[in-house]
Design brief:
single chain, Aminopeptidase, 17% strand, globular
């Protein structure tokens, strides 16, 4: 990987980062306030979370677009919906905002995070952390002049039973982009970015990666496959020049467990370059998909350092000459 990962003691958060710290804590606490999570098992909080994201985007001065669809009719396309439960008519939505590029508006960079959580889990780290990052990146980018178009998306229905089906929100989105012929030059999925540990043995990997990477879960991971290698190298190079938290990068075949376990995989299916930025979720986080995935488990200072670095990635990618 290019450049050198941050090492040593991190400096105090600067003024901008202190604002990020306070805001993401507030975002996560709201989004993860229901023990049943953000899903069809808890429709009221699912709806309030959607409205919260919309309201935050609008408060930052953005016009919000919704991509609405009926997930259960996509999940069960061969069922006669008139003969069974009314729930098949439920409508969900991806939530997006756009910062239109000034010089190369046809070239699009997407940053996304799913806002649903698994049933029975508040989903603080998975994935209120990613959504909080999207909201803060939106706030930080507002008013900047960018060469390329940047789209920020909160995806719905990443978790089971929709995961890796035609009803997965990011796949619905990526499929539409492909049909439209949109020129997505890079997609970044923010997936479970808030848990860190200095304990030896706290970091696990699918075989054989444990022989090549640290055994402490104190870094943020950048994951891509071979078709996205250039994007991954660019992103981690920018991050390492700007961020004050360790990072590790891996370009891996998609068959290794975990490599495509988020919304970036939907863009791979449509031949778009995409990467995932993650704390590695089940390979580190002991509360993954559990009722204990609560806001108190998140290291907000380290998560702030991640968000600050990702914002710089987006800004540089949107303005560089490559």
């Amino acid at each position: 990987m290019p450049h050198v990962s941050f090492k040593g003691e991190a400096p105090p958060l600067n003024t901008v980062e202190r604002d990020i710290f306070q805001n993401v804590k507030s975002h996560v606490r709201f989004l993860a306030s229901d023990l049943q999570g953000r899903n069809h098992h808890s429709n009221n909080h699912f709806a309030s979370s959607k409205n919260y994201i919309i309201n935050q985007f609008q408060a930052y001065g953005y016009s919000v677009s919704l991509q609405e669809y009926q997930p259960f009719t996509k999940l069960y396309p061969d069922i006669d919906t008139k003969r069974i439960t009314q729930s098949l008519d439920e409508t969900d939505a991806n939530i997006e905002i756009e910062l239109l590029g000034k010089e190369k508006p046809e070239e699009i960079i997407i940053v996304g995070a799913h806002y649903d959580s698994i049933g029975g889990s508040p989903g603080a780290n998975d994935n209120a952390s990613g959504v909080a990052a999207i909201l803060e990146i939106a706030r930080l980018l507002h008013g900047l002049t960018l060469s390329r178009t940047v789209i920020l998306v909160a995806f719905v229905n990443e978790e089971p039973p929709f995961f890796k089906t035609e009803a997965m929100g990011s796949l619905v989105y990526a499929n539409r982009s492909a049909v439209r012929g949109e020129q997505i030059v890079g997609m970044i999925a923010l997936e479970t970015i808030g848990y860190f540990s200095e304990v030896p043995g706290s970091q696990h990997y699918p075989q054989p990666l444990r022989f090549f990477y640290p055994n402490k879960g104190n870094f943020i991971g950048f994951v891509g496959h071979f078709s996205s290698s250039q994007l991954l190298r660019q992103a981690i190079d920018i991050f390492r020049k700007k961020a004050t938290i360790p990072s590790e990068g891996a370009i891996l075949p998609a068959f290794i467990p975990g490599v495509d376990w988020s919304d970036h995989g939907s863009f791979w299916k449509n031949d778009y370059p995409a990467i995932m930025i993650t704390d590695t979720a089940p390979y580190r986080y002991p509360y993954y998909h559990r009722a204990q995935d609560t806001p108190d488990k998140i290291d907000y200072e380290k998560m702030t350092r991640v968000i600050s670095g990702v914002q710089k990635i987006v800004e540089v990618l949107a303005n560089n000459d490559q």
